[in-house]
Design brief:
There is one protein chain. The chain folds into two domains: 103 residues, OB fold (Dihydrolipoamide Acetyltransferase, E2P) (Beta Barrel); 55 residues. The chain contains three helices and seven strands, in the order H-E-E-E-E-E-E-E-H-H. The radius of gyration is 31 Å and the shape is rod-shaped. Strand 1 and strand 2 form a beta hairpin. With 183 residues, it is an alpha+beta fold. The strands form two sheets. The protein has a five-stranded antiparallel sheet, with no helix packed on it. Strands 4-7 form a two-stranded antiparallel sheet. The longest helix has 22 residues.
Length: 183
Amino acid sequence: MGKENDILFELIDVWAGQRELYSKQATVTAVDEDNRTCTVSPTDGGADYLNVRLEADFTKNTNTDPKGFFIVPAINSLVIISFTDKTNSFISAWTEIEKTVSKQGQWTFNLGENGGLTITPELKAQLDKTNALLTALINIINGAPVPEPGNGSASALQIALSAAITGQSLGSYENIENEAVKH
């Protein structure tokens, strides 16, 4: 079996020598999201690499032919660039991610068991309506006493409702949106 292994390893060496596939560590110096590329500076002090791809399905006209998913590395972060040949490279690993961009129509996390993401502006609008209604009801309950027929004192219902809401506050929905996750 030794001879077969030797032949196999020789073939691999020849193939690898022709392809010159390798990876390098580099620092991101610029990002061009429109063209889905970046410029990196190798940590070994070599010359900068330009037009390093951010996604696999790279098209020249990304505005008319938007595709896929890509990750935008943070400026000054370390990345690994891998080469498909002597002139084409892509980011294969990241230390810091500025953001991810996707043209996907649907994402499913955790098997979709929790339903879809809330549309924050619509949620806030509906919660504001609920707060307005509750505010109006609270004002009525805490307003001028509604005399109980026959004895002129506040009704038992009004007294009970007023006691139940004393010390309660309406919800504040100003901070319900996570700006780091957009959809």
